[in-house]
Design a protein that fits this description.
Blueprint (H helix, E strand, L loop, with lengths): L4 E8 L3 H12 L4 E5 L12 H6 L1 H19 L15 H26 L2 E10 L3 E6 L4 E11 L3 E3 L11 E2 L1 H4 L8 E5 L3 H12 L3 E5 L11 H14 L2 E3 L3 E8 L2 E8 L2 E7 L1 E4 L3 E3 L32 E3 L10 H15 L13 E3 L4 E6 L2 H6 L4 E7 L4 H5 L6 E7 L5 E8 L2 H13 L4 H5 L10 H9 L10
Parallel strand pairs: 1-2, 1-5, 2-3, 5-16, 7-14, 8-9, 8-14, 9-10
Antiparallel strand pairs: 3-4, 4-5, 6-15, 11-12, 12-13, 17-18, 18-21, 19-20, 20-21
Length: 475
């Protein structure tokens, strides 16, 4: 083993939380190292974590490609555009996705170089005394001693014991790399990954059946938003079945047999490919040597306080491996906040204003409390909503589905939540995030001038509707 190397900060993991932490620490003058084990398709190190390699970025590339194809057959004719027999070259589409992934993972490497972050490639394990032992890909080992260690180990797909991943049963990684459009695609789980990847292959012609164990669709979202989204998905041909408890799978010559029970009893479907999207778990297995003092909870997540400190001097944890939503942008903010805390600056992440987005068509987004949560907590509120069908820009785009809802405290008018379903709401939700961060009111939002014609006018009118003064709909 080579001689121990000393750093001010050693980051374990170069995903969204880890690379942000490493770059920000280096910007602040701290000698920083970052360890990551991931390899790309070419067998070379690929920084960026699940998000850049097999998550956020590649899935959006496929979503955009499939959307273009879908629009050719379903929306272009409304614009007077016609052509002969649209076709999809799946291998070319996947190659485009791979190119985007390579561009961005390589970009992190360049950012590390520009900011003087020392990268190490291999599997890291935290030892007592803030020592990180790295087993590098060539079999050699190196020890890194950090005054501070930031654990950003990320998360892995949950594998079901009766549906082991392989050629026909896949997780998000496999569903991004199909070489052809499966005639029949089964999806277990109607969450973000299931809906997004189910949408990709449905748009390209696959018969998609989504089996969801819960009785309610998108239970985490606002009930009205979920209802509108479900209606639009049904129009697109997504077959979403609720209250389905999958019990077993069998791979046979004619496909994957999926056995489940619903309110009608035992059921079976046969599909060519099965995507298992039942959630993710913290990637902490083998991460901690005995005696580090770092604690894991019952779900394998690292226990931290409100500032992401583990309680062990100099050891922090951020991103998917700690409490809070498993979202890349939440990891971004935690990584930056911890780097700034280490440097003696203030750092804090408000988990109550983290936006959620599902990049389906229409998009679904929200921030803050739902009406159901406010009712359950006994918080008095007023609601205002506005449909995209009454927004000139949305109709001109042939994207009239959906609406914006603003929830405000009935007494103080402080915005408590914003819920959206429709075109480009992944961008519009940040009006709600910003308003909530500044403790703004629905009246504040209503009095801000919004450009016309724009989709953002739906936010404006929804805020006005809280006080029954929307101009473009009956109050």
């Amino acid at each position: 083993m080579s001689e121990q190397q000393n750093f001010d900060v050693v980051v374990i993991g170069a995903g969204p939380a880890g690379y942000h932490a490493a770059i920000r620490a280096a910007q602040l003058g701290l000698k920083t190292a970052c360890v990551d084990a991931a390899l790309g398709k070419d067998g070379k190190p690929a920084l960026g974590g699940t998000c850049l390699r097999v998550g956020c970025i590649p899935s959006k590339a496929l979503l955009d490609s499939s959307r273009q194809f879908w629009n050719m057959g379903h929306i272009f004719d409304q614009h007077g555009i016609s052509f002969d027999k649209p076709a999809i070259d799946v291998k070319k589409m996947v190659a485009r996705k791979d190119g985007i992934v390579k561009q961005f993972t390589g970009g992190i490497g360049m950012l590390f170089k520009a900011n003087k972050v020392a990268p190490f490639y291999g599997f890291a394990q935290l030892q007592p005394g803030n020592v990180v032992k790295v087993k590098q890909h060539d079999g050699s080992e190196v020890e890194l001693k950090g005054t501070n260690v930031i654990i950003a180990a990320g998360s892995d797909s949950i594998e079901l014991p009766f549906a082991k991943f392989g050629e026909h049963i896949v997780d998000n990684v496999g569903a991004l790399d199909f070489e052809t459009v499966p005639k029949r695609l089964g999806v277990i789980g109607a969450g973000v990954i299931g809906l997004e990847l189910g949408s990709v292959w449905n748009r390209l012609g696959s018969e998609v059946v989504v089996l969801e164990g819960l009785p309610n669709f998108l239970a985490a979202a606002d009930a009205e938003v979920a209802k509108v989204a479900a209606r639009e998905f049904k129009k697109q041909g997504l077959d979403i079945r609720l209250g389905c408890k999958v019990s077993n799978t069998e791979v046979k010559k004619d496909g994957v047999h999926v056995f489940y029970t619903d309110d009608k009893g035992e059921q079976e479907i046969v599909v060519d490919k099965l995507l298992v999207a039942v959630g993710r778990r913290a990637a902490t297995k083998g991460l901690l040597a005995d005696g580090t003092g770092v604690k894991l909870d019952a779900r394998g997540m690292i226990e931290v306080d409100e500032h992401n400190h583990t309680g062990v001097d100099g050891v922090w944890a951020v991103g998917d491996c700690v409490r809070g939503p498993m979202l890349a942008h939440k990891g971004f903010e935690e990584g930056i906040a911890v780097a700034e805390l280490i440097a003696g600056l203030p750092g804090h992440v408000n988990l109550d204003t983290i936006p959620w987005v599902i990049y389906t068509e229409p998009e679904i987004a929200w921030v803050g409390k739902t009406e159901e949560q406010l009712k359950a907590e006994g918080i008095p509120y007023k609601a205002g909503s506005f449909p995209f069908a009454a927004v000139g820009r949305a109709v001109a785009m042939a994207e009239p589905a959906g609406f914006v809802k603003v929830l405000a405290h009935a007494e103080t008018d402080t915005v408590l939540g914003m819920h959206l379903v429709g075109a480009n709401v992944s961008e519009l939700v940040h009006e709600g995030v910003l308003t909530m961060e500044f403790k703004g009111s629905a009246d504040d939002l209503a009095r801000i001038c919004h450009a016309h014609p724009s989709l953002s006018e739906a936010v404006h009118d929804a805020a006005m509707a809280v006080h029954k003064r929307s101009i473009h709909k009956a109050n």
